[in-house]
Amino acid sequence: MHTRTLQQVIRSIPTSDGGGVKLRRSLGQAPGLRLDPFLMLDEFSSENADDYIAGFPDHPHRGFETVTYMLDGHMLHQDHLGNQGDLQSGGAQWMTAGRGIIHSEMPQQESGRMRGFQLWVNLPAREKMKPAAYRDIQPEEIPLINLPDEGQVKVIAGTAEIDGKIILGPIQGLSTEPLFLDVLLPAGGHFTHPLVPDHNAFIYPYENRVEIGSMAERRALEPHTAGVLSAGNRMEVHAGDAAAAFLVLAARPLREPVVQYGPFVMNTREEIEQAIADYQNSRLA
Ligand code: CO
Question: Which residues neighbour 154 within 8 Å (Cβ) at sequence distance 6 or greater?
């Protein structure tokens, strides 16, 4: 057994996207700050409607997957394929842009708290031009497991193994084999989980700091910061004096060249130029 240590820290920076939604970007704030196959992680959290009301009006994507996970709030997704999905507190949306999708995500509330995440997961070269697909995941489809010390784990993607039990998340069968967990720990609580040794993994605390690693090599990770883990076959996270909440993300790296131009992520410059031309000629999707 080799417990992963905290290897790199990527602090989030405040930015805005879409129509002007305020958010914090950790992975993806610069091309060198990705973790193959994860391209970007944005956290949005505000009680102030001015920070989110403009939403994400119609925009394109090609070459990867976008995952939206809502903690609080209500957004409506619409795309050019005619899909329409209600994204509610505790639900998620897994969209494979593939060769192209044009979509919008607009808040369905004019007040109150809006909080959640958007994650971009790359697709392998051979899948970048597959047809777009879209999946709405209702809160009740996400398994919730109670930990012995009053913590809780939600399994959004992949397969969790907790106390010898195997728990399947609603998203399975992708070639990057993503594991996406949302973990709540009480003060002093801890969480351990096996990881595939050659999968890349990071932890993102969104409420309070955590400590990562086994007793001998434990390091603190501040909230709103992505903590990239070293290689190893298990992870260990401890809450401090306050209850903590964090995301766990792990996946098989693609080890392919990444060329990104805004919402298009391909392997070569020529493919990016093609994506731009296709979008301008209404041939993206
Ligand atoms: Co989008």
Answer: 142, 143, 144, 145, 181, 182, 183
- d(CA 251, ligand 1 centre) in Å: 21
Expressed in angstroms and rounded, the spacing between residue 59 Cα and the centre of ligand 1 is 6
Give per-residue pLDDT as tens, 142-165.
999 999 989 999 999 999 999 999
Ligand 1: centre distance to CA 61 (Å): 6
Interval between CA 8 and ligand 1 midpoint (Å): 27
Q: Which domains does the chain have, with CATH numbers?
A: 6-27+35-266 (2.60.120.10)
Alpha-carbon separation of residue 196 from 80, 124, 170, 280 (angstroms): 37, 19, 19, 41
CA 118 / ligand 1 centre spacing (Å): 9
Mean pLDDT over residues 182-194, rounded? 97
Report residue 242's pLDDT band, with 50, 70 and 90 as the boundaries.
very high
Judge whether residue 1 has pLDDT over 80: no
